[in-house]
């Protein structure tokens, strides 16, 4: 039995590539402390370990043996992890992607909180606009959740782009089945698609530190477009910066990561509700400190 004065502990982790800048450790640890829990959160960076999605079975087994309560799953493992789970939530099964795995009683239960996180972020930050005609870049694990969410939020049509052959068409077919009254197609020319679009979503990893640049030329954006980013490290991707400079209504990825984390926290703790506002304020403070520290670093001529 645990001594009466011992703080309950929660061991969590994140599996993905290039996650060295992820704020998930402090996000979960800070919120857990507010509920009287000691949370220890580990980054399991596939790049640093020289591993890939094929190593998911051994990583999941190791997490179980070490007593992890759960794992966050990010690029490129959100779909690859599914065959190694015992059970999926209804949402994860429909979307076909998992970003949260609860490890409990010898079972691995997959959930998708990306859908909830993106939906909440748009509801709070789209500024009363209707989504209208939407172009989405990326049809992978995160893209599957985001596409379902934007259609449920009332998009009039959705055009998908993805660099992996067949992936956009596979997602489009699944969405057409779930949303038979809404046109969902696969785009060929981003310039043409954006000429008739009201909004653009980047659900690719392009823009992260490991994948710098923009998934499409920023010149295709017009001030009338709204633009939503799901990346939050860095908080301002190059495409988000271009969109803001052009006068587009922009939504960064901070709200999505906070809301999906709040929902995941509740799953990991078997019902303890996280305070999303407090979590958002904490992350914003950390990002401000990072920005200040970067600004204070001395620059050296090449």
TrEMBL record:
Question: Which residues act catalytically here?
Answer: 78
Q: In which pathway does it act?
A: Metabolic intermediate biosynthesis; chorismate biosynthesis; chorismate from D-erythrose 4-phosphate and phosphoenolpyruvate: step 4/7
Q: What is its EC number?
A: 1.1.1.25
Q: Which residues form the SDH C-terminal domain?
A: 253-281
Q: Which UniProt keywords apply?
A: Amino-acid biosynthesis, Aromatic amino acid biosynthesis, NADP, Oxidoreductase
Residue ranges occupied by any Shikimate dehydrogenase substrate binding N-terminal domain in the UniProt entry:
14-101
> What Gene3D superfamilies does this protein's entry cite?
Leucine Dehydrogenase, chain A, domain 1, NAD(P)-binding Rossmann-like Domain
- NCBIfam families attached here? PRK12549.1
| UniProt protein name | Shikimate dehydrogenase (NADP(+))
